[in-house]
């Protein structure tokens, strides 16, 4: 072998030795890197690391009080078990971890915890964004454990049969599983919230009779046999242009064509029906059983007195959502329940109370105006809709004085005291809660009218018209002409009862109603 060959052979040997050494070093570095990455992942998956950035003042305390820590099995569920997809799906787990981690770190560095509305973030609408349903299912594979109640069996059977079809989420019924909330209740309500059975009732404060109405003027109705009263506003009849022009910002097709409507005089409640009013109705008429709607209706028609009216069955959980009762609007009842309330109120007072027609509602909401709102301002000034409006924040000066909507509601209903009245003396006609009307919804209803229509009312359709927007609405959806409708099946999506409740909705919070009263024919309406 020549010297050159031997030299080349030695060179190749050294080359391969160095290559092997570099390979070993690379493998070692890779192992160290992967181990470090894994240990980093493990560290940043601990409860302690989560709480470094999460500055919620009660997150740890409420977690420690929850059934995910305090339970009979002794198993403790950690932050990542609920807030990240299961590790079985590696990409989903770690991509979600990275995205949420960056978001939390950014919030920790740039936001003032004192300015964050923690109560709003604990509501279901926000919580579902951070609780993957597959994480719940990963742990809770046996939905029928020993000791489960009959109601639990019914609910979980319903979940098994409809989870994929209806996109049911476990958290919809178990919102406080991970973080205890004293205001949340999962189960059938017993009694009336805030009223104890042993409390003495001072009947001397009860009204003996309803308020007599001798003239067409505002009055305060007194509900006999209760200590509850409420204000009714006299709304003179008149003619107005119903609907919105096509050039109105955020105009929708079902708001046109504009047309002339004339209305007879009516009385309308100053505020939406309150919990104080609804609970006395509930207390007098509540039903323990589940009576079919047609049977209840027949019984009510035959009723000779209030005692015969069949009222709501107890709801699951507290329908006020823990937001407060008193003069806040009563919510989550069905249209049928609202109509039954009106029937009960009519029997109690000897007057004719009912839900307003859609035309009466818009006439009252406008308060004599024809602009998008009954106060100055354009929807374009107040709305968040559109890319540029998300950069340049909308105005809130005049609208917040009259409307409870997304920008000032704190994610919940509010007392009537926080807003001013419209020109007719009515409060919360826009925002706070959507209000039922007595009209069926027809997107083409306006096109079917001609001339000056007197006291119109739509009786054909599947859903009911609701008006006014709610506490989470954008300013575009609380215009005087804006229309919406019930979504009966969707609003009962998580109700596991068979048949489903005819009294309470399980999946809508911002729905309520206000009453109108028809003047007695003997009144001078001029």
What does this structure look like?
The chain has 526 residues and is an alpha+beta fold. The chain folds into 2 domains: 47-172, no CATH class; 205-518, paralog of FGE (formylglycine-generating enzyme) (Alpha-Beta Complex), CATH 3.90.1580. Helices cover 32% and strands 9% of the residues. The chain has 15 helices and 12 strands. It has helices at 3-43, 47-53, 59-65, 79-83, 90-110, 118-121, 124-127, 133-139, 150-166, 275-285, 293-302, 335-349, 358-366, 379-382, 387-391; strands at residues 219-222, 229-235, 238-242, 259-263, 266-269, 352-354, 434-440, 453-454, 464-467, 483-485, 511-512, 516-518. The strands form 3 sheets. It has a 5-stranded antiparallel β-sheet. The model is unreliable at 290-306 (pLDDT under 50).
How would you concisely characterize the structure shown here?
Helix content is 32%, strand content 9%. It contains 15 helices and 12 strands.
List keywords for this structure.
elongated, four-stranded mixed beta sheet, paralog of FGE (formylglycine-generating enzyme), alpha+beta, 526 residues, five-stranded antiparallel beta sheet, 15 helices
Write the layout of secondary structure elements.
Elements: H1 3-43, H2 47-53, H3 59-65, H4 79-83, H5 90-110, H6 118-121, H7 124-127, H8 133-139, H9 150-166, E1 219-222, E2 229-235, E3 238-242, E4 259-263, E5 266-269, H10 275-285, H11 293-302, H12 335-349, E6 352-354, H13 358-366, H14 379-382, H15 387-391, E7 434-440, E8 453-454, E9 464-467, E10 483-485, E11 511-512, E12 516-518
Parallel strand pairs: 4-8, 7-11
Antiparallel strand pairs: 1-2, 2-5, 3-4, 5-12, 6-12, 7-9, 9-10
């Amino acid at each position: 072998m020549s010297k050159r060959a031997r030299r080349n052979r030695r060179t190749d040997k050294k080359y391969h030795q160095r290559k092997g050494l570099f390979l070993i070093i690379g493998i070692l570095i890779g192992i160290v890197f992967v181990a470090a990455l894994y240990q980093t992942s493990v560290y940043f998956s601990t409860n302690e690391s989560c709480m470094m950035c999460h500055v919620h003042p009660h997150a740890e305390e409420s977690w420690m009080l929850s059934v995910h820590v305090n339970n009979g099995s002794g198993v403790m569920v950690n932050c990542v078990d609920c807030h990240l997809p299961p590790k079985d799906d590696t990409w989903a787990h770690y991509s979600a971890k990275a995205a949420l981690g960056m978001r939390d770190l950014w919030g920790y560095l740039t936001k003032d915890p004192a300015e964050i509305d923690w109560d709003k973030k604990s509501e279901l609408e926000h919580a579902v964004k951070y609780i993957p349903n597959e994480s719940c299912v990963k742990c809770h594979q046996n939905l029928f454990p020993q000791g489960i109640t009959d109601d639990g069996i019914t609910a979980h059977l319903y979940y098994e049969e409809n989870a994929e079809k209806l996109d049911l989420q476990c958290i919809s019924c178990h919102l406080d599983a991970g973080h205890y909330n004293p205001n949340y209740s999962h189960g059938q309500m017993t009694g009336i919230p805030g009223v104890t059975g042993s409390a003495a009732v001072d009947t001397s404060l009860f009204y003996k009779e309803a308020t007599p109405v001798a003239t067409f003027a505002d009055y305060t109705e007194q509900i006999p046999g209760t200590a509850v009263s409420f204000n009714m506003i006299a709304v003179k009849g008149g003619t107005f242009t119903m609907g919105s022009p096509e050039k109105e910002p955020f105009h929708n097709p079902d708001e046109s064509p504009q047309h002339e409507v004339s209305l007879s005089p009516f009385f309308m409640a100053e505020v939406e029906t309150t919990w104080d009013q609804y609970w006395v109705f509930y207390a007098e008429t509540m039903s323990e059983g589940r009576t079919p709607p047609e049977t209840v209706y027949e019984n009510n028609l035959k009723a000779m007195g209030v005692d015969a009216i069949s009222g709501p069955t107890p709801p699951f959980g507290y329908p006020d959502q823990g937001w407060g009762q008193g003069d806040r609007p009563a919510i989550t009842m069905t249209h049928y329940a609202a109509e039954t309330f009106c029937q009960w109120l009519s029997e109690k007072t000897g007057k004719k109370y009912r839900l307003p027609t859609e035309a009466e509602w818009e006439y009252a909401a406008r308060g004599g105006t024809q602009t998008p709102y009954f106060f100055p301002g354009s929807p374009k000034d107040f709305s968040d809709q559109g890319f540029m409006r998300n950069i340049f924040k909308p105005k809130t000066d005049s609208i917040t004085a009259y409307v409870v909507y997304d920008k000032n509601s704190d994610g919940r209903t509010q007392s009537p005291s926080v807003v001013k009245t419209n020109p007719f003396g009515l409060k919360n006609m826009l925002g706070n809660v959507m209000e039922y009307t007595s009209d069926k919804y027809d997107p083409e209803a306006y096109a079917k009218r001609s001339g000056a229509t007197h006291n119109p009312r739509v009786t054909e359709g599947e859903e009911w018209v609701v008006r006014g927007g709610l506490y989470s609405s954008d300013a575009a959806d609380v215009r005087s002409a804006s229309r919406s409708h019930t979504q009966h099946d969707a609003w009962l999506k998580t109700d596991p009862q068979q048949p489903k409740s005819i009294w309470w909705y399980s999946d809508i919070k911002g729905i309520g109603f206000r009453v109108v009263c028809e003047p007695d024919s003997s009144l001078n309406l001029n």
